[in-house]
Amino acid sequence: MRANTWAGRNKVEVRDVPDPKILNKRDAIVRITSTAICGSDLHLVDGYVPTMQDGDIMGHEFMGEVIEVGPGVDPGRLRVGDRVVVPFPIACGACAACAAELYSCCENSNPNTGIAEKMFGHPTAGIFGYSHLTGGFAGGQAQYARVPFADIGPLKIESDLTDEQVLFLSDILPTGYMGAEMCDIQSSDVVAVWGAGPVGQFAMDSARVLGAAKVIAIDKEPYRLRMAEQAGHIPVNFDEVDVRSRLLELTGGRGPDKCIDAVGLEATHGSAHIAAYDRIKQAVRSETERPHALRQAIMSCRSGGVVSVIGVYGGLLDKFPAGAWMNRSLTLRTGQCHVQRYMKPLLRRIERGELDPTRIITHTLPLDEAERGFDMFKNKQDDCEKVVLKP
Ligand code: NAD
Ligand code: ZN
Ligand code: ZN
């Protein structure tokens, strides 16, 4: 089959690779009809995640048709022919974390927990296409994928919604929603979102759906800010204005009630978290003058407010403003998204027309053009917001 693979720092390459096979009795094989490029893939391409190997298949946002199931897959839940969206965290459905609906912390889905233990002090769950840190699972930017615990994660789509309407249930719609849900939004709340990428856009839409009075979009890309503005959110360009001052102006001098970091690693530009890990020492770059989203969110949030972090972080973060966090009674919440928890309720919201995930798609390309898709998305060319690939 054809698959988009990691080919060294800042390089992906579509290659011929062996088709996946059923390895465990609860596996399924999915023929992929749509897959997408995510901001998280950029961390792999950048080399910030030190555990990719040449030839690893990328991609964790995908959907398609089940073409084969292992003998242990419960036929009451999944059968050949089903059309499914696959959540990015692989979860067993039976461990203590899964029982608590903390699916992205599943204790049974990562067969190689050594790296995670070394980095984070604890094992992490398996994730498709996300390096050997999270199990080395082949990803979904391919014609086919092997899906473990197939009768737990995948969401069956039984209506005639298009792929474009449901594909983002695999990751970024639940992630944006979880970012807003963690804020415990009240009807008078002003919610500020750092990052107007795909995840940020969905965090903004979710904040509105959950009742926020005002939603503010912070980024520097004019076209991304325009997209947020067209969806009804208030744009703030951090290249043009001092973000904290502007936020105080917009909130009667108190700061936003709730702040969402939908940026993550990009803004840390090297610094301590990279220097901490031997294998990525090469990647250290000097810290730039660019504002750091998480620090700025903590410094801007009103006293007693919530800072919700859905941007992905990999290791250490220096200059964490612990004083502001503690003395102003802020709540900090975060996590890789527990996608399985949100798929069904968000599908209902899509069906009811409360959320329109298609609004962020700017490019649809054949899988063979994945490299061009990555270039456009990474370098913000051609007003690229979200790329969908068709295998
Ligand atoms: P993206 O790279 O397209 O978007 C990030 C945006 O942040 C860009 O538009 C960039 O211009 C902007 N930005 C950079 N520095 C900023 C700053 N200091 N202030 C404000 N904006 C700034 O990526 P995306 O697909 O939207 O993903 C965003 C983040 O969410 C990534 O870190 C990704 O890994 C993470 N993510 C997390 C989960 C999860 O489960 N928690 C799931 C998916 C993605
Ligand atoms: Zn993603
Ligand atoms: Zn589990």
UniProtKB/TrEMBL annotation:
Residues 25-154 form the Alcohol dehydrogenase-like N-terminal domain. It comes from the Bacteria. Residues 198-268 form the Alcohol dehydrogenase-like C-terminal domain. InterPro entries: ADH-like_C, ADH-like_N, ADH_Zn_CS, GroES-like_sf, NAD(P)-bd_dom_sf. PROSITE patterns: ADH_ZINC. Gene3D superfamilies: Medium-chain alcohol dehydrogenases, catalytic domain (3.90.180.10), NAD(P)-binding Rossmann-like Domain (3.40.50.720). Transmembrane segments: none annotated. One of its GO terms (molecular function) is oxidoreductase activity. Its EC number is 1.1.1.-. Pfam families: ADH_N (PF08240), ADH_zinc_N (PF00107). PANTHER family: DEHYDROGENASE, ZINC-CONTAINING, PUTATIVE (AFU_ORTHOLOGUE AFUA_2G02810)-RELATED (PTHR42813:SF2), ZINC-TYPE ALCOHOL DEHYDROGENASE-LIKE (PTHR42813). Belongs to the zinc-containing alcohol dehydrogenase family. This is Zinc-dependent alcohol dehydrogenase.
